[in-house]
């Protein structure tokens, strides 16, 4: 069978997390520094644009107010930031308590975690080296 190289995964467009109270979650993510996607508002839904430039479109973190399924509402999102330690201090100054101080991981990133109001784990990281 001939391998198809023209149909490859190119990028991640969006991740959607379910939340129990959309207003509370939007305020939390805005406090973290996420920028809400401009446009029409849809009840129970919010979208935040991450990154992007003239060459690449942004990725989106979406929040959907909905009941949690049989596995609960846990999810993890890893977001790269320009300076892990400075971002950590910024969140602490805003009253957000990270799970631990920035650490160097064996997989080559410096990172720390924050839990959102619904228990989703947000990892803020930067590759080392």
Automatic annotation (TrEMBL):
Gene3D superfamilies: 3.30.720.110, 3.30.720.120. The keyword Acyltransferase does not apply. It comes from Paraburkholderia caballeronis. Residues 11-127 form the VOC domain. This is Glyoxalase/Bleomycin resistance protein/Dioxygenase superfamily protein. One of its GO terms (molecular function) is dioxygenase activity. SUPFAM superfamilies: Glyoxalase/Bleomycin resistance protein/Dihydroxybiphenyl dioxygenase. The keyword Oxidoreductase applies. InterPro entries: Glyas_Bleomycin-R_OHBP_Dase (IPR029068), Glyas_Fos-R_dOase_dom (IPR004360), VOC_core (IPR037523). Keywords: Dioxygenase, Oxidoreductase. Pfam families: Glyoxalase.
């Amino acid at each position: 069978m001939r391998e198809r190289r023209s149909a490859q995964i190119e990028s991640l467009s969006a991740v959607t997390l379910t939340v129990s109270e959309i207003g509370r979650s939007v305020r939390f993510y805005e406090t973290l520094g996420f920028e809400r996607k401009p446009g029409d508002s849809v009840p129970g839904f919010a979208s935040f644009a991450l990154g992007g430039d003239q060459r690449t479109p942004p990725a989106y973190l979406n929040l959907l107010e909905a009941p949690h399924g049989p596995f609960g509402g846990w999810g993890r999102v890893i977001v790269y930031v320009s300076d892990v330690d400075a971002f950590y201090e910024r969140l602490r100054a805003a009253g957000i308590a990270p799970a631990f101080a920035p650490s160097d991981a064996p997989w080559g990133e410096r990172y720390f975690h924050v839990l959102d109001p619904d228990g989703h784990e947000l990892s803020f990281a930067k590759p080392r080296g």
